[in-house]
Specification:
The chain is an alpha/beta fold. It contains eight helices and six strands.
Length: 180
């Protein structure tokens, strides 16, 4: 299980760690990695140590290139309280990594519930951790990996982004009476 995010309050790294800990109590072989830096980095490292998770949860810190880390993940976990349209979820799914995330911002526009991941409508660590453990135990990861990879390319390719941008500009220009 991996997470790539700024280690700041709005990303709720303590909730991430608590959810991971709950999932690990149900799936003891679970390993985790948190990638990112920020104001709470030292606190995050301390929380991992206090919970005695150092043997199974690594805090890497800030890195230049996340692609190698995404290639190693089986599940991406995001526990943010607020988001815009989180590119990191698009990137994770682009690497075929299913997502478990809180229902913040535009995640429901990216994650196809039950197909490419699970959106948890709760801020309770137990519910998030249970969703994570259920995904692992349910043997759905291989199918979700495939779907996440396909969906990300179908919906978020450069070609799709350009087409949607053109469509938006055309629609707005037509409203003000300007033709292409």
């Amino acid at each position: 299980v991996g997470g790539i995010f700024r280690l700041e309050a709005g990303k709720r790294p303590e909730l991430w760690i608590e959810a991971f800990e709950i999932a690990r109590s149900k799936v003891p072989q679970l390993k985790g990695v948190i990638i990112g830096g920020g104001k709470l980095e030292e606190s995050v490292r301390n929380w991992v140590k206090q919970k005695d998770l150092e043997d199974c949860l690594i805090v890497v810190g800030e890195v230049e290139n996340v692609s190698g880390w995404l290639e190693e993940m089986d599940i991406f976990l995001l526990t943010s309280s607020t988001e815009g349209l989180p590119n990191v979820i698009i990137e994770a799914q682009g690497f075929g990594v299913p997502v478990v995330c809180t229902d913040a911002g535009g995640v429901s526009e990216i994650v196809s519930e039950g197909l490419t991941g699970n959106i948890v409508d709760s801020s309770e660590a137990r519910i998030i951790g249970d969703s994570l453990a259920d995904l692992i135990s349910g043997n759905r990861i291989p199918k979700m990996r495939e779907e996440a990879f396909k969906e990300s390319r179908r919906r978020f390719s450069v070609h799709q982004m350009i087409a949607k941008t053109r469509e938006t500009y055309s629609r707005h220009l037509s409203l003000v009476g300007v033709e292409e």
